[in-house]
Amino acid sequence: MEPTEKKMKVAIMGAKGYPYVYGGYDTMIKELGERLVKKGVEVRVYNHRALFAERPRFVNGIECIYMPAIESKSFTQLSHTFFSMVHACFSDVDVILVVNSGNGPFGLISTIFRKPTAINVDGLEWLRPKWKGLGGKYFFWASKLATKFYDQLINDSEEMRRVYLELFNADSKVIAYGANPRESVEEEPIAKWNLKSKEYFLIVGRLIPDNNADLIVEGFLKSNSKRTLVIVGDVPYQDEWANRLKNISDERLLFTGYVRDPNELAALYSHCYAYFHGHEFGGTNPAMLKALGYGCAILALDTPFNQEMLQNGKHGWYFMKGLDSVKCIVESSEADENAMLALRDSARSGLTQKYNWDHVTDQYLEVFKGLAKRS
Fold first, then answer.
1. What is the radius of gyration, based on Cα positions, of the chain?
2. DUF1972 domain: which residues (predicted)?
3. Residues 317-361 pLDDT 10s
4. pTM for the full model?
5. Buried-most residue among 75, 129, 343, 372 (CB within 10 A)?
6. Where are the alpha helices (DSSP H) in the chain?
């Protein structure tokens, strides 16, 4: 009787956990982890203990480890990954996947313990306005260390690969973020906000400066549009910038706050006249992928990342970082309804094979197998 092949064990850390789906990394861990389990991989996810009232050991075949953190605005995520990395290095996992370039320094621990590691470094964290000053310097330093201490660097776009080559002389494997397109979504859920299909523009994202919601709101209000601008998202803390934005009083603005019901969010995407994407710093953006997957006409800030995702204008229009540019694109889009219809009709075709979650999983699995062989 032949011995059964030993299952590969992969630990994943650096996000909030599983199945806690709040941001891009949490979604990636869910989509990737569940698919890896189906492919015979033993997956362990390190969860931020404070976020989980109930703490089952296994969920959908994924082992959940609930680690503590030093609870503060600056140190929660970093301390959680530190404790998780130490725990994983003393365990029998074969490979460790870390997300977020801020966790770059902790690769030193896995190097000492000779645990094979990969890190998904995401976007240009050091340029984000919320990390100005010391925070920005830390993220630049941490991202540089990530290129030194981890066995495999992963970026989610060709543009981010170019940036890491240019800044740190470090190459990376490009594995995009996945999407889950939906062809048909009912209009009914948007009635909750007294909205009608194609009668509103949409923004989805955290209310932070680098997503440029203020630019879009103020530019939109300068336009002659009679439609509503719906802003979905918030920040989970008191913030002067976000509060100033939410306090702008105009009957054409609708701030929904967080929309946690996936059917309501899908309906908001699917039935908007056009989706505004103001995200400035980062690679493959999950909100943009949702917009493509739900068949939105996309109006995006002109950045190299957004050009890459929209195939240089094939699947969207671009605006510059200025109020008049936003005003102009609002009025131009309303003057050419056929162009918006054409963008909606072709949006899902923008989700090429590289944005398919099964393909994404196969690429990660290839990386993990290569790393496991080294050990």
1. 21
2. 119-179
3. 999 999 999 999 999 999 999 999 999 999 999 998 889 999 999
4. 0.86
5. 343
6. 24-38, 76-89, 107-113, 134-149, 158-168, 213-222, 240-246, 262-270, 286-293, 304-309, 323-335, 337-346, 357-374
